[in-house]
Write a structure and sequence with these properties.
heterodimer, A: DNA polymerase, domain 1, globular, B: alpha+beta, Proliferating Cell Nuclear Antigen, nine-stranded antiparallel beta sheet, five-stranded antiparallel beta sheet, 5 helices, 18 strands, elongated
Chain lengths: 344, 267
């Protein structure tokens, strides 16, 4: 879900070429869920190998990573650790949505309503432990670094961006900015085409960057106030937000009053969540580690072929091509440096 | 209308405003064109001495450094320091049909944050365009040593770069005390262009030591095509595996120069 800041936060469209030569931290679960939801056959069944094991996530991971590498864009994947206890409500809500979708999916399939089946199928995606293990195995074989976050992957990716170890955090959610990422990149994919939900239509979606400092300046907020703004609208830790407060009202309130506490003081009807302080802490002082290393290794093509083609029924030709192209991309990337690196 | 509003501004110069005119509107457009090759939006700093701009392209590989002193204009008035951010591509769109027998007047008034452009010859055309919120990003000051310098006619340099770009994405430049060499190697073909110190295209070569570096041709091509539209003489300054400074001599005083990061070759 993530916090709904789309209407408030200034975003800048960029091209993939602008991002070439840079490194990005990707929230791995966010990406894998996307692959599971999007990479599906005509009736909405995910890609599977001959044993019926789902491979959509591996396909997405392999081709997204190698295609971007070919363009000189390096990804680091960050995996979620234990979710903060406060996220339970949101996690339960998601589980309920999924269970409902499974029931509806099966009903739609039985009665032959293909379009509907596909729609519900996308909402049934869930990440099994084995899928995560498989994904890590593919990353290791590709020589792409991955980081295990102590808690939220998004927070870990944000801190890596804030420390300058990567150029930006990659996510569809704006939470990265609340977690303190100096930069966020959304829609980072090769094909700019995205299917509109519930429709047989596609829109062109370009990558866009969100800059924390620019956002704070344009919204005229401090970082603490931005977090309060997020909490007013609703985050993963208080998913319902506040009744009757949408993004625009929330911004107005924070600008007028300065913080959730003073909004509460001014209007007795307004009850801040009891866990307000803890939610703020999650964003302002997240549970992250600085003990990680980002090293790329030579891809193990034969190992990938053995695993993906031998075991998971990928096309050998496509796998070999993808990795060979990515290798060239990594080589090019290392030669490209920004001007600042020369200005002592 | 426009004149009268300006006249009234003059009586109360409390807020920032500037007004500049140029008899050849096309010269104005060409200079904007030279900036637009790298930069979509840029902060222009207007001071009583002239207009300055320094900005990096989005990927921070290249920088444009540009200065228009007030003497480059036919008239120039500016009552303070004003920073205005403009969409260069939008401005160029407005000026697309500019002719060289037209004069141009540019007026900015801080009160409504709008830029008024008037083009005049037989008919008078007025354009009003908004300015954007200036960025607070600090553009670093380039501090790089240069060991080699080549002064070359802009037209020849453009030909050389066009040839190289037909073959490869990169170009290797080499300077020795008496020769300037350009190499491009593609998948199938390669190009070698050698210019001796005495050749017609070369105005001067100065090299402290043999120097070579490789640059991305997409960027270098854009820079050189853009600059050669505004200038006739180019000087290239660089050091081995260091950024290159490409400076275009301006017909009026002023400055148009670019920096481009090198590609480091793993040898």
């Amino acid at each position: 879900m993530g916090v709904d800041l789309a209407d408030l936060i200034p975003r800048v469209k960029v091209s993939l070429d602008d991002l070439s030569g840079k490194t990005f931290a990707v929230d791995a679960y966010n990406a894998l869920y996307q692959f599971l939801a999007i990479i599906r056959g005509p009736t909405g069944t995910p890609l599977m190998d001959r044993k019926g094991r789902v491979t959509s996530h591996l396909s997405g991971l392999l081709y997204r990573t190698t295609n971007l590498a070919e363009r000189g864009i390096k990804l680091v994947y960050v995996f979620d650790g234990r979710p903060p206890a406060l996220k339970e409500v949101e996690i339960k809500r998601r589980r309920a949505v999924k269970e409902e979708a499974i029931v509806k999916y099966e009903a739609a399939v039985t009665s032959g309503r293909v379009e509907e089946a596909k729609r519900y199928a996308q909402a049934t995606s869930s990440l099994k432990d084995m899928m995560v293990e498989d994904s890590i195995r593919v990353l290791d074989l590709l020589g792409v670094p991955h980081v295990q976050a102590p808690s939220e992957g998004e927070a870990q990716a944000a801190i890596m961006a804030a420390r300058g170890d990567v150029w930006a955090a990659v996510s569809q959610d704006f939470d990265s900015i609340l977690f303190g990422a100096n930069r966020l990149v959304r829609n980072l994919a090769i094909s700019g085409r995205r299917k509109l939900p519930m429709q047989q239509a596609y829109v062109q979606v370009d990558p866009e960057t969100v800059d924390l400092q620019t956002a704070l300046r344009e919204l005229q907020l401090s970082r603490e106030q931005l977090v309060d703004l997020g909490i007013l609208i609703g985050t993963d830790f208080n998913p319902d937000g506040f009744k009757g407060i949408g993004p625009k009202t929330a911004l107005k309130l924070i600008r007028e009053r300065g913080s959730i506490d003073s909004i509460a003081q001014a209007s007795p009807d307004f009850r801040p969540p009891p866990e307000l302080r803890r939610i703020r802490e999650i964003f302002l002082n997240p549970d992250v580690t600085t003990n990680y290393s980002l090293r790329w290794k030579e891809p193990d093509i034969e190992g990938l072929v053995k695993f993906l083609c031998g075991d998971r029924d990928f096309s050998e030709e496509r796998v070999r091509n993808a990795v060979t192209k990515a290798k060239a991309g990594f080589a090019v990337e290392s030669e490209k440096k920004t001007l600042e690196s020369f200005f002592g | 209308m426009l004149e009268s509003s300006i006249a009234s501004e003059k009586t109360k110069p409390a807020h920032a405003m500037f007004k500049a005119t140029m008899n050849d509107a096309r010269l104005f457009r060409n200079l904007l064109g030279a900036i637009s090759s790298l930069i979509e939006e840029a902060d222009f700093n207007a001071t009583p001495e002239g207009i300055k701009l320094r900005s990096m392209d989005p990927s921070h590989i290249a920088m444009v450094d540009f200065e228009w002193p007030k003497t480059a204009f036919d008239t120039y008035e500016c009552n303070g320091n004003t920073k205005l951010r403009l969409s260069v591509s939008n401005l160029l769109k407005l000026l697309k049909r500019t002719r060289s027998d037209e004069s141009i007047e540019v007026v900015y008034d801080d009160t409504n944050k709008k830029l008024n452009i008037t083009l005049k010859n037989k008919i008078t055309r007025k354009f009003i365009t908004p300015t954007l919120e200036p960025s607070t990003e600090e553009v670093p000051t380039p501090k790089v040593p240069f060991n080699a310098r080549v002064k070359i006619t802009a037209a020849s340099l453009r030909d050389i770069i066009d040839d190289a770009q037909a073959i490869s994405d990169n170009v290797k430049l080499e300077v020795t005390p008496d020769k300037f060499t350009v190499r491009a190697t593609g998948e199938l073909s390669s190009a070698l262009i050698e210019l001796d110190k005495g050749s017609d295209a070369i105005l001067d070569i100065d090299a402290k030591e043999p120097t070579k570096a490789t640059y991305n041709l997409n960027y270098l091509g854009e820079i050189i095509r853009a600059g050669s539209g505004a200038s006739e003489v180019t000087s290239l300054e660089f050091s081995t595996n260091m950024p290159i400074k490409v400076e275009f001599e301006m017909p009026q005083q002023g400055r148009l120069l670019y920096y481009l990061a090198p590609r480091i070759e793993s040898e």
